[in-house]
Amino acid sequence: MLQPIEGSAAVAKAVALCRPQVVAAYPITPQTHIVEGIARLIADDDLRCELISVESEFSAISAILGAAAAGSRAYTASSAQGILLMTEVLHNVAGLRIPLVMTCANRAIGAPVSAWNDQQDSMVMRDTGWIQLYCADNQEAVDTTIHAFRIAERTELPVMVCMDGYILTHTLEVIDLPTQEQADAFLPPYHFARTLDPRKPLTIGTLVTPDFYTEARYANHRALIRAQEEILAADRDWEKISGRSCGRLLSVNGPYDADVAVLSIGSVMGTLSDAREQHPELGPVKLIKLRSMRPFPIDELKRACERVSELIVLERALSPGGGGIIGPEVRAVLSELHSPPRIHNFAAGLGGRDIPLEIYPKLIEAARAHEVTRFAIIDVDIDKLAVEDR
Amino acid sequence: MDSPRSNSHTVAELHHKQPAFRGLEAGHLACSGCGQALGARLVTEAIGPDVIIANATGCLEVFTSAWPRSSWRVPWIHSLFENAPAVASGIEAALKAQGRATKVVALGGDGGTFDIGLQSLSGMLERNHNVLYICFDNEAYMNTGVHRSSSTPHAAMTMTSPSGKMRMGKRHLKKDLLAIIGAHQIPYAATATVAYPSDLRAKVRRGIEIEGAAFLLVHSPCPLGWGHDGALSIEVARLAVETGIFPILEMERGNVVTAMKIRDVRPVVDYLRPQERFHHLFDDSPEARDELEHLQQLADHNIERYRLTASQPEAHDSEGVDTVGRGGMRWS
Amino acid sequence: MPTLTRGSFAHGATSLSLKTGDWRLQRPQHRHKAAPCATECPAGENPQAYIAKVAEDDLRGAWETLVAANPLPAITGRVCHHPCERGCNRGSFDQPIAIHNLERFLGDRAIDERWNYPINTPSPDAPQVAVVGAGPAGLSAAYHLIRRGFWVTLFDAEPEPGGLLRSALPPYRLPREVLNREVERLLAVGIVFKPTHRIGRDISIDELRADFPGVFLAPGTSRAREWTIDGVVPSDLRTGLDLLREWNSIGALPEYNRVAIIGGGNTAIDLARVMRFMGVEEVHLITFQRLPGPGVRPKDAMSATPREIAQALEEGVKIHEARGVRRLIMRGDTVVGVEVVHMKELDHHGRREPVAFEGTETILKVDQVIPAIGQQLDAATFGRALTLPGVFVGGDARMAGGTVSGAIGDGRRAAIAIQNYLEGLPEDVAVPLRSIAFNELNVNYFEHAPRVQAPLLAVEQRCADAEIEGALSQGTIVGEARRCFSCGKCMSCDNCWTLCPDNSVLKTERTEDGWQYVFDYDHCKGCGICAHECPVGFIDMVNEP
Question: Which domain holds residue A151?
Fold first, then answer.
């Protein structure tokens, strides 16, 4: 049913539709409205769920690890510092192959302190073994959240649903909220094969020697790669029920024969789409929306870039001392093409800086320049730097 | 003269026929004479099979769960060092949501409880989850190789608090964890020791019955880390109680309600002497003598503060509580 | 090769497949050690074993265990000097177990309930053995021979069996009724009793040897030791044992006012007390030995039973310890006094001899002096027989000044020796058992508790005909039995089973006397906690082979 609703509130409702039995959370801006929404649903008996207000994010993810291992569907949400505090546990959950869903309301990481959006927090967690799916708008946030529970439970891998903090979480959008029947048709009751149960006692969380650790790591890696099938299946099956797709692992929008493309992720896709409309004079440009960061959609990316000669990768994160994060991964994949495009990697919008429509012409201009921009923070203002740091 | 052969069962079969539930089985990798292994075995015995355990990183976790072997007969999960209480909280919430009555127990060493896991424990207690937390206190990070924790007693030697020209072992005092636990006003908290297994088991059963959070601190000698023969683990633990160094208390909502009286108080040196970790206190130097006096004062302070002496013998004092009788528990 | 599991989980209790027993340098072993009460008992009883049964309320079982060694517990429970109690390890903790009270209780219960010995009669064609002397040694030998499958003919010079038990022990120490019932039960197992058969008069040793393949001589020491002081022997001299026998027989004593009895053994004490009960005004007992007590070595102490000495003192017997009689003061043929001198047993050239110290003399006015210094074997009748094949000797005849329990022990050992002789087996070489010392126990697991005290008649109520020490109730007796440490023998306290960190002490079916634990040597790491915490010292740590 269509209704205007704040992004966080919509996600809270989406979570509730999936019937979690345990939610544990620690407050951090800009995730708070999601958890407040869940709390209100519980208080009004619209959701039967144990909400544990824990004393840190480390305990939040640990508590739902325990809950999921004990046979209950479980959920949490966090941002930035909280996500980082969870680092050790995120690896732990993935290694133990426990199905969990967490919303990352993307926010910049301190120092310096910032409460505003970028995607550094989830990007630095790309090696934890979690599935990472990014949402371009609040409708996708709702739908991807519902996908996420099913994907997690079928793959026995935890899923991080990333949505830009403030930009998505705190904005009103007209959302088609699914019904409980739709959700129930899509998502069966929680079942975990290794549930902690005195009737069948198992020992979870063992020490593994060098003889077998490699195989354990390999199993996780392979599971993530194969999870692509479940991510695709979830999108297809939910599309049949709701009529909506979130764009599979990656989606392309634009003229078939355009040889310039801009690849990005998250809410900035909306800005890019509007800007492209306003600048037809800049020529045909494909917009590639990356949805699944982990597993990285290698085949889809190669197909999308077959005819592309200039590719701009725009991201809201970076690897200090290295360059971009998505950029180098794209470069590595596309190097396998027969004639890979020139790839220009830009970071922008860090710490909540607005990405205006005007960025689009700048990107296209850079793509047409003689030199390839291996990496640049396109909206940095050198004049603002401390004298000693120039 | 050899032990009797069991006529109708092999030893392997007997492991499955014991008249007490052996939640921790043989074949684990603990050191010979490990107090913590004994403590964990006694604890699972008192709880029975209907339990889910969340275990913090530490000796107990490592020596019982080296894949592919596990010593646990109960469902058991190890996540990380600092989050056992949080994991237990989640398990408890899940069981509540599912309407299952299985008890949740969290286990940790002193490192994981006094230090790195203190926050997680505090949260669990504050929210009064229906979980029994048991800390096996061997007074250092033993798993990493005998490193000082906030539970290490004053003047004890560890690899990160060695004695030498400038130092007499650990400078700081042993953290009074029970006071911290007491401040959380939970329904039940207690200290116990592997030297008095009946008392320990009774307290575990009490903790299991409590609706809400309960906490047990179990003194568990470490022959390797404390520097004594494995055969003396029980004796050393007993001396800790008889000298007043480790008081055996029960606390309800922050108030000490019972204290095990010491029938014949022993001087602190009786406890210190058998342990290599206090060896440097016996070199007769002025500093060593001062430390011995300090430790005696700390023991005396415990005795005074918790009123650990009585004018006459009691059934559950330090002598009465471990009195044996002919017959024990009959095999059936 | 194992394959990984999803998330690397492990199945429960799979650690049993790892044999941590390989780590071991030492292993625990169950080793039964003798309790000191058993090694001290001259009769060869194992008090720890029957006390264990009393502790479990199995009185019948306890008595049957007891009579496997000693057939006369109602007697020894009253008259034995109980070295078991002196050796009892509980004595180093608080007070020794009142073993003699336990033994007496069982003996009396057996009499009341008319229990029979749990033994079979010999087969009809079993060999016959002759036993001479129906005192404690002979009675014991006869009993043990029947137990071992031999028929016995028992001879005694007196009309009634019992030997010194009947003739020398006053009723206040051993009631006639008790003596009769115990001996009656014993003779009823199939012993042929021939009273008033004196060897040398009614039957000879050679005749015995001709009629019986084995002969046991336990005739006692019927001859008094020669005794003179300075060559003087009073005309009305009577020996202590002689007087006691006479009194036991006719109930009267010669008229004495003030008497000096020489000697420190049970005969001296018994006579002294009988005299006090009979109204003799002053009874002095003079002995070069010491009153038993702390600081007095057993070999220096009077050989009489300590509780008898204590009661004698209560009853007004005056004991002059570390003294001897140097000279008799005579008026004509009668004694009017004795010269008492300090005396002590000293080592002289490897022999112990009493030595008098000149210059320490005092005079004690008495109207009679009675030596109670021991007896000796009638060598004339029996001397030659001692070296004949098939002839065995025991009791006082073997070692003068022996004890009732020692005699009973002799009888048992004689029966074994005779069996070996008749069946052509080699002699039993007794391996002396080391008893377990107090410091090998772990007494942290016991609580102090006082020893029972049987009620004693007040001094003014005592007389020669009635028992002075009363009986105890069953509850009290069982409670006392439960004070027993069970030295060296498992009492199934469950300590080892409870305290093993490696689950390597396992319970099995109860096998015997509470021994119901096995070690899992596949997993035992040899830490030694079980051995150290065993309260009774039943587990030893031995090096791995």
Answer: 2-242
- Does pLDDT of C346 surpass 90? no
Query: Is residue B129 within 8 Å of B213, Cβ to Cβ?
Result: yes
Asked whether residue C426 carries a pLDDT value surpassing 50, the answer given is yes
Interface A-B: count of C-beta contacts within 8 A: 159
Q: How many residues does the structure list for chain C?
A: 545
Taking the Cβ of residue C53 and every Cβ of chain B, the question of whether any pair is shorter than 8 Å is answered with no
pLDDT in tens, B227-251: 999 999 999 999 999 999 999 999 9
Helices (H), A204-325: 210-242, 268-278, 298-304
The answer on A130 and A25 residing in a single domain is: yes
Nearest CA of chain A to the CA of B233: how many Å? 27
Separation CA A39–CA A33 (nearest Å): 10
Please report residues of B whose CB lies closer than 8 A to that of C525: 32-33, 230
Q: Considering only the top CATH level, what class is C36-117+439-479?
A: mainly alpha
Chain B hits for C444, CB-CB cut-off 8 Å, are 235, 238, 319, 322
Class of domain C128-222+377-422: alpha beta
Name every residue in B having a CB less than 8 A away from some CB of A: 49-52, 54-55, 61-62, 64-68, 70, 72-80, 82-83, 85-91, 93-98, 102, 119-120, 122-123, 126-127
Same domain as A211, residue A65: yes
- DSSP lists the bridge partners of residue B218 as B136, B192
Residue-level pLDDT at C247: 92
Which helix (DSSP H) or strand (DSSP E) does residue C376 occupy? Answer: strand C375-376
Question: What percent of chain A has pLDDT above 90?
Answer: 99
pLDDT for C233 equals 74
Residue B287, pLDDT above cutoff 50: yes
> Among C4, C7, C12, whose Cβ lies nearest the Cβ of A201?
C12
ipTM rounded to 2 decimals? 0.95
Structural contact between residues C393 and C217, judged by C-beta atoms closer than 8 angstroms: yes
Nearest 5°: phi and psi at C509? -65, 155
Q: Which of C13, C56, C520 sits opposite B11 (nearest CB)?
A: C520
Would the CB atoms of A212 and C8 count as touching at under 8 Å?
yes
Q: What mean pLDDT, rounded, does chain A reach?
A: 97
Q: Which pLDDT value is given to residue C510? A: 65
Residue A210 contacts B where some CB pair is shorter than 8 Å: no
Chain B interface includes C222 (CB < 8 A): no
- In the prediction, which pLDDT does B1 show? 44
CATH topology of domain C15-32+489-543: Alpha-Beta Plaits (3.30.70)
Taking an 8 Å cut-off on Cβ atoms, the answer to whether C12 and A204 are in contact is no
Q: Do A202 and C6 touch (CB under 8 A)?
A: no
**Interface residue C235 vs chain B (CB under 8 A):** no
SS3 labels along chain B: CCCCCCCCCCHHHHCCCCCCCCCECCCCCCCCCCHHHHHHHHHHHHHCCCEEEEECCCHHHHHHCECCCCCECCCEEECCCCCHHHHHHHHHHHHHHHCCCCEEEEEEEHHHHHHCCHHHHHHHHHCCCCEEEEEEECCCECCCCCECCCCCCCCCCECCECECCCCECCCCCCCCHHHHHHHCCCCEEEEEECCCHHHHHHHHHHHHHCCCCEEEEEECCCHHHHCCCHHHHHHHHHHHHHCCCCCCEEEECCEEEEECCCCCCCCHHHHHCCCHHHHHHHCCCHHHHHHHHHHHHHHHHHHHHHCCCCCCCCCCCCCHHHCCCCCCCCCC
Same fold, C15-32+489-543 and C128-222+377-422: no
- Res C232: pLDDT: 74
User: Domain of A295: which CATH number?
Assistant: 3.40.50.920
Q: Are B97 and A22 in contact (CB < 8 Å)?
A: yes
Return the partners of chain B (3 or more C-beta pairs < 8 Å): A, C
